[in-house]
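Structure ticket #2291
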Amino acid sequence: MTVLPIVTVGDPVLRERAAEVSPEELPSLQELIDDLIETRRAAGGAGLAAPQVGVSKRIAVVEVDAATRYSYKPLVPLTVIVNPVVEHASSEMLLINEGCLSLPDLRGDVPRHLRLTVRHLDRRGQPQVATLEGLTAGTFQHEIDHLDGMLLVDRADPRSFSTWEQFERHHREAFLQRVAGFVR
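Resolution: structure written out below.
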């Protein structure tokens, strides 16, 4: 496995809708999936999408463990999502302060659906259905946005932007209080 360089805002691949992956392609993409996992773990993010390493394929990984930089998020076991489709999303929204590995040192408040159902393939091409809530639902929406060429700067109120340092200093406590009931 290899830790790949993460592309940052301004790279055109981040603005493209990533290409669908056929089940026949998946065997040849296993190394990429392993590299996405390794890169996500090395960077300490909650997820990573293939476009973030310069590959325009509809593949992302989500994993929240003790090593993530998002210690307040609920743990999420390693999940590989291929060709995800949001099947249902609640109308109820949650404002989540997010960061992004492709936007180093920038955070912003993004409205996310509180609950959603996602259909996708796993890394072996097996169909999966995930019903997600709270901050976990927000994490999946963030990664799916990457596959659609969207970044948090497209959805966030620009007045909410801050650096990690300023978030920690001035906003973290209020954010944690606001989302305490949604950490599931």
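Closing remark: The helical segments are 30-43, 134-147, 152-155, 164-179.
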